[in-house]
Design brief:
Elements: H1 5-22, H2 25-39, H3 45-54, H4 56-59, H5 62-69, H6 71-75
Helix pairs in contact: 1-2, 2-3
Length: about 90
């Protein structure tokens, strides 16, 4: 578990760059979704939506559908009793 947002931001940025360099849309979407949840940001929302629409594996993914269709809930503050709940991701 990464304790601080600053540490998480660095690690997520490294993971994002790694997936972009590998041209891996499925894993890039996952990293961007985790970043959005952890950082409570919508900066990558439209890229996630686009990846969801274009990547067959994401089109068929129940969790990807849930995230895209419940975006505000996805980036909202997590339940204080379980702040690391990523909907089973």
């Amino acid at each position: 578990m990464v304790e601080t947002d600053a540490s998480a931001r660095i690690l997520l940025r490294e993971a994002e760059l790694f997936q972009r360099n590998r041209i891996n849309p499925l894993e890039l979407a996952k990293v961007l979704a985790i970043k959005a949840r952890r950082m409570k940001t919508s900066e990558d929302k439209w890229e996630i939506v686009e990846l969801h629409e274009k990547c067959d594996a994401l089109k068929d993914c129940v969790l990807a559908d849930r995230i895209v269709n419940n975006w505000d809930e996805w980036i909202a503050d997590a339940d204080p009793s379980n702040p690391y709940d990523y909907w089973g991701m």
